[in-house]
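Risk register update: the risk of archive-format incompatibility is retired. Evidence:
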Amino acid sequence: MKELLFLLADLWMIFAGFYCGWKFIRRYNNYLLGLEWMVVATSGSNFLLWSLLGGDEDSPLYSVAYFFDAFSRSVGITLILVMGLMSVTHRYKPTVAVDVGAFALAIVAGLYLQQFRSHELHVGPATYYVVVNVLTTLFLAYFSWRLWGIGAKGLAIGAGLATAAASVIAITYDFFPLPGDDAHRTLFYSAALATWGVQLFVYFLAYGALHKHNVATGAVPASSAQRVARS
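Archived output:
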């Protein structure tokens, strides 16, 4: 039963990442969020394959899984997420150089943090992950407030709950293992993958609501609305 829950949670996150990531690019021309969503989906695909092949920690797939995990926890679903969402909160349009630089930074961070992949607690990296998550959560609280302000109260609540759940996962990840979980942390990863999938999907819907509001109020060109209609 635990294995089935893990499988479903991972497949859900993979779907949300690839589907919403493609839509971010096609509808909104937002490569920061689109590519990061696809990175998360690719990470989930690799994690799923690694698990189905036995979960051997000596497998190259384990190293790849840890790299993707560090990539997104350090920079991807922190700095890149905030920069991407600022497109609808602050009309921020990063240059290609900024997009490339953000992902290059995430790659460097992922490669550097791989050295801390042992099972023992590394307080420095673990604390860093929690700190950047807290800072990101503050922005996401503002993001939810903006949704509430335009009347998208359901999405505001959904985004707030998804953010709160993800924060619990982030704190639990390194510091508080779930009691009764197995050696592979199947219960924890099932909850984490399901939560991350909800995040990806809800933030996509919330982004669309703010984009639509910005078009309606003239904050962005009407051509953007036409692109959304075509996709």
